[in-house]
């Protein structure tokens, strides 16, 4: 089984989740290629049996390149075992941590020609010390408005790694 895992990340949490998915798939006996969204454009999706895409949110949006990629390749993606997950800090809230209740997943499904077979939502990470002044200020303001952590000296990981394992196992069993 040839599996392609594609990621779109800004600060690296989506990549970390994709690396975990890769390990799970390899333990299930799959041959896995892990690539960025940009690298995926140079590949032939027809060469893979399964495709999983993970993408993060910044300032309420997935990157435009994500939509360009999935809309360009949706016909081929539809012929594969496929899945999509989004990583966002809003998913730290219990009422916004499922594909049905997460506003970013719902927006993705509205804007995408591709309707993935398997969906998941993971809470991300805030790493204030890693951000530049603008991002740190904006993210802190957003967190203040949404009652999240605002200590700019802190790093706050909200990712539920058991949920990541569970989704990785479900995706690998197909």
TrEMBL record:
**Which domain of life does the UniProt lineage start with?**
Bacteria
| Gene Ontology molecular functions | FMN binding; menaquinone-dependent protoporphyrinogen oxidase activity; oxygen-dependent protoporphyrinogen oxidase activity
Q: What is its main location?
A: membrane
- Where is the protein situated, by its record's location annotation? Cell membrane
Please report the stretch or stretches of sequence annotated as the Flavodoxin domain. 4-152
What is the catalytic activity of this protein? protoporphyrinogen IX + 3 a quinone = protoporphyrin IX + 3 a quinol; protoporphyrinogen IX + 3 a menaquinone = protoporphyrin IX + 3 a menaquinol; protoporphyrinogen IX + 3 a ubiquinone = protoporphyrin IX + 3 a ubiquinol
Kindly list the GO CC terms recorded for this protein: plasma membrane
The annotation note on the cofactor reads:
Binds 1 FMN non-covalently per subunit.
Keyword line: Cell membrane, Flavoprotein, FMN, Membrane, Nucleotide-binding, Oxidoreductase, Porphyrin biosynthesis
Q: Which GO terms describe its biological process?
A: protoporphyrinogen IX biosynthetic process
Give the pathway. Answer: Porphyrin-containing compound metabolism; protoporphyrin-IX biosynthesis; protoporphyrin-IX from protoporphyrinogen-IX: step 1/1
Q: What is its EC number?
A: 1.3.5.3
The UniProt entry's coiled-coil ranges are: none
Which cofactors are reported in the record for this sequence?
A: FMN
Instruction: Report the family membership.
Output: Belongs to the HemG family.
Function field: Catalyzes the 6-electron oxidation of protoporphyrinogen IX to form protoporphyrin IX; under anaerobic conditions uses menaquinone as an electron acceptor, under aerobic conditions uses ubiquinone as an electron acceptor.
Name under which the protein is recorded = Protoporphyrinogen IX dehydrogenase [quinone]
Instruction: Print the organism lineage.
Output: Bacteria, Pseudomonadati, Pseudomonadota, Gammaproteobacteria, Alteromonadales
Q: Which gene encodes it?
A: hemG
């Amino acid at each position: 089984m040839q599996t392609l895992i594609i990621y779109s990340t800004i600060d690296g949490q989506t990549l970390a989740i994709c690396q975990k998915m890769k390990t799970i798939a390899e333990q299930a006996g799959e041959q896995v290629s892990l690539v960025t969204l940009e690298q995926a454009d140079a590949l032939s999706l027809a060469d893979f049996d399964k495709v999983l895409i993970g993408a993060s949110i910044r300032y309420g949006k997935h990157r435009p390149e994500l939509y360009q990629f999935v809309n360009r390749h949706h016909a081929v993606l539809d012929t594969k075992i496929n899945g999509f997950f989004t990583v966002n800090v809003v998913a730290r809230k219990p009422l916004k941590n499922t594909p049905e209740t997460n506003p970013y997943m719902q927006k993705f499904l509205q804007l995408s020609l591709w309707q993935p077979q398997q969906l998941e939502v993971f809470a991300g990470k805030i790493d204030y010390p890693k951000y530049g002044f603008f991002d740190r200020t904006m993210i802190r303001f957003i967190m203040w408005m949404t009652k999240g952590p605002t200590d700019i000296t802190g790093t706050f990981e909200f990712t539920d790694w058991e949920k990541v394992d569970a989704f990785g196992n479900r995706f690998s069993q197909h």
